[in-house]
Input
Amino acid sequence: MDFLTPAVAPFTIALIIMAMLAVMEIVGLMFGMGLSGLLDSALPDFDADMDADADADAPDADGAAGVLGAVTSWLSIGRVPLLVLIVAFLTGFGLAGVIGQNAVKGLIGAYLPVPVAVIAALFVALPVTRHLGLALARLVPKEETDAVSRDSFVGRTAVVIRGEAKQGLPAEAKLKDRAGTVQYVLVEPDEAGATFQEGAEVILVEQKGPVFRAIANTLPALSGSVG
Output
């Protein structure tokens, strides 16, 4: 089976990227900051974005938001770890392309043109990604998959669970939203020079993109409210 010929190279590259992501996740976990957590924390809040577009009363924006929402929902984005979906897509795309191109070469003696092979591989990879996402959405604990507006996290107490948080170098933390569901976010100190070690309890005071600014929790009444 040929992996290096130009007609197969795009699919081989996809498999190499998939393997690199797996290695990065393992190495990241060894140092207390998994790639999966970073990706999920940086993922936009699609529900909130669509609500904002609807409030703006802009038909074009509503249509774009509707399409975006349909695509993300179809692929289960936001309901299962994003890294899992990326790996599933790259694996499906890479294997479909490599196996398909080599099978065609064996049958007719020539490879399909790369654009045709890429389109065919996408028709395989996208449904594979969707069905894997649907299957995992039923298996992943509910506390990891419930969608809640991230704006509501401000003012809540969180506990740093991975890494050491500094300004410009966030760490992963967990909190309970208003429904009692555990959520995972990236936090960094609001004050310059401050640091949060693993296990530190903090209060989220502001959202800056995918990262929340936080201060140390000095209120005994809020201590231990994360669980």
